[in-house]
Amino acid sequence: MIKPRNPFHAGEILLEEFLQPSGITQTEFAGKLGWTRARLNKLIKGKRGITADAALDLSEALGTSAKLLMNLQATYDLDQAMGRRKAA
DSSP readout, 50-80? Predict the structure, then answer.
């Protein structure tokens, strides 16, 4: 099975692949989602993950799949856990 060498946090993908290309600010996008800017910013900075509910909100706003967003988060989380085990 092929796995990414350095999985990206889903928040980084959100920023670089969706928000920046469309020119929308975090404040504008947070408002569209009905979230606070702080909540969105924590996600983008990798300080919080994407929950199932967040994936549904984001998929609706972005016109993408909630499963894609959950898979990005799960891949990142698994990579982090594997790294912690190797370090222990």
Answer: --HHHHHHHHHHHTS-HHHHHHHHHHHHHHH
